[in-house]
Amino acid sequence: MKRNVKFFTIVISLLLLSAIILTGCMYAIAADNGETKPYDLNGQKDIGDNLIEDAPISQNSLQAKFEAMYEISEDGKTITVISEDYLNNYWRSNYEKEVIHSLTTEEVYFIIQDSIRIYEEYDEVVLTGFASVSSMMQVAERFPFVEGKTIKTQPDVTPYYDWDDTKAIYKIIIYRLKALSSPKAFFTGAEVIRFNGGDPAMYSSMYPETMFYIPGYSETTDRDCILSTCLGNTDPIDLDRASDLFITSILGYSIQFFSKTYGLTTVVYPTAEMDCGDFFTTTPGGYEYDNNGKIPIEIVYGPSLTLNVNNTFTLSLNSSMSSIVGGIYYRIGYELTLVCNSGDSNYTLVFYFQEGEGYRYSKEKSNPPSGYDFEDGTMFYLDKRG
Questions:
Q1: What are phi and psi of 13, to 5 degrees?
Q2: What is the model's pLDDT at position 380?
Q3: Cα(304)–Cα(307) distance, integer angstroms
Q4: 112 in Cβ contact with 118 (< 8 Å)
Q5: Residue 108's closest CA among 223, 269, 251, 264?
Q6: Which residues of 13-30 are buried (b: 16+ CB within 10 A; e: fewer)?
Q7: What is the pLDDT at residue 214?
Q8: Which of 162, 202, 279, 338 fits 349 for a cystine, CB–CB 3.0-4.6 Å?
Q9: What is the pLDDT of residue 223?
Q10: Stretches in the chain below the pLDDT threshold 70
C-alpha cells in the first residue's frame, strides 16, 4: 500500500554500518520507487543477504503454520493475527512445566513480510492480549505478556508507505514475536550491562533500552554466553556458542539482523521493497497558502536531509539539489552521525534526535564540508508529505 523514495545500495555503507553496529553490540556501549500493493509475499527471499538460500522450511509450510493462527471476520475486513483460542492452546502446556517456545530465523523473516501483507489487505488488524493467570513469578516467567490492541490501516490515504505505516507494521511484527516466544528469548541492553557488572543508569545512549531477540532459542542455548559477548567479554571459543540476533529499534520502526557467521548486521525491516526513507528539512510543513487559504504554494526548501533505509543519506543546501553531499549514517543512542563521501577527507556532521520533531545540529561535534556548517542547534524537522 505504501512506499517512499530514494533507495540505493552502496557496498561501503553496509560494511561500515555493520562494523559500527557490531562494535556497538559486541564491544562498544561499554562506556518514489518501491512496489505498490498488493505486497508480494514471495519477495521473502530477497530481504536479507544472510537468509539461507536452502531454507529447511518451505514458504507453503510457513504460510500454513501462520494461517492456522488467523481469525478473519465474516466481511473479510478485519483479521486477528493470533486468535485467543490458538494463543491459549499454544501456552497451555506451560502451566504444568516450562516448555520453550521460539521462532526460527526463517519464521521471523516470514512474519516480517506477512505482517506487511496483512497491513495491505485488511482495514483492521487485531492483536489479542495475553498474560499469565499465575501470580507466581517463577511460573509467570514462562509466559509472555502482550497488550491487546486494534490497528486501523490507512488503505485510502496514499499509495505510499509513510512514517505512521512503518511504525504500525512494526508493532504487528513485534507483537507476533512476543506472543509466540518464551520471555527469555528476548533480552535488553540493560540486562547485558547488569550481567557484565555494570549499571544501566550510567549509559547516556539508548542501548539499555534496545531489545534483542534470539532466533531458535531452546534449552541448549547458552544465554549467558550471549549476554557476555554482547559487551565484548569473549574469546573465539565463546563465539562458537554465541547466536544470531534480531535487534529492534526502541524508536519503533526498524529491525536489524546480526549474523554471527558473517559478522554483519543488515536492515531487515523496513524491507527494500518499502524503501522508507525519511525526509527532514529546516522548513517544516512543506506548503503554504495564499491569503484566501485556497491555493497551495510549494515552499522553496532550504537545507534538507534524507535518511534512506540502507543507511545512506543525502544532504542538500536547497530544493534545487544543486549543492549536495552524500554518504552513510549511523546512530548511537540519540546521536546521529553523517559520514560524508568527499575526497580523501573525513567529514562528519552530528545531530541529536528530538522526539516528535527531527534532528538538531551539533556544531561543536561536527567537522562538516565547506558550506555545510549550520548554526548550532539548527533543527531539521521530519517532513510528512508522504
A1: -65, -40
A2: 92
A3: 10
A4: no
A5: 269
A6: bbebbbebbbebbbebbe
A7: 96
A8: 338
A9: 93
A10: 1-57, 132-138, 155-163, 204-206, 231-240, 250-252, 272-273, 275-277, 284-301, 309-310, 319-323, 341-345, 384-386
Q: Do 3 and 32 meet the contact criterion of CB atoms below 8 Å apart?
A: yes
Task: State the first-to-last Cα distance of the chain, in angstroms, to the nearest integer.
Answer: 12
**Which string of DSSP letters, residue by residue, matches 13-64?**
HHHHHHHHHHIIIII-S----SPPSSP-GGGGGGS-TTS-TT-SS-HHHHHH
Task: Report how far residue 215's alpha carbon sits from residue 48's, in angstroms, rounded to the nearest whole number.
Answer: 15
Q: Say if CB 294 and CB 49 are below 8 A apart.
A: no
Q: What is the pLDDT of residue 11?
A: 31
Q: Compute the distance between CA of residue 169 and CA of residue 111 in angstroms, rounded to an integer.
A: 11
Cell of 377: 542547534
How far is the C-alpha of 85 from the C-alpha of 93, rounded, in Å?
A: 14
Say if CB 287 and CB 294 are below 8 A apart: no
| Distance, CA of 74 to CA of 217 (rounded, Å) | 37
Cα distance between residue 163 and residue 384, in whole Å: 7
Beta-carbon contacts of 61 under 8 Å, excluding residues fewer than 6 positions away, are none
Beta bridge partners of 381: 281, 358
- Alpha helices (runs of H) in the chain, residue ranges in sequence order: 11-22, 59-67, 84-91, 105-121, 137-140, 163-179, 189-195, 223-229, 236-240
Distance CA 286, CA 317 (A): 16
Which pLDDT does position 60 carry in this prediction?
Answer: 87
What was the pLDDT predicted at 41? 46
- SS3 category, 352: strand
Contact predicate 362/343, CB 8 Å:
no
Place of cell 492452546: 89
The pLDDT assigned to 127 comes to 97
Find residue 340's DSSP bridge partners: 327, 347
- Given this model, what pLDDT does residue 34 score? 38
| Amino acid, single-letter form, for residue 263 | G
| Helix H or strand E encompassing 255 | strand 255-259
Cβ atoms within 10 Å, residue 322: 8
Residue type, 92: R
Burial class (CB in 10 A: 0-12, 13-18, 19+), 177: buried
Q: What is the rounded distance in angstroms from the CA atom of residue 313 to the CA atom of residue 328?
A: 6
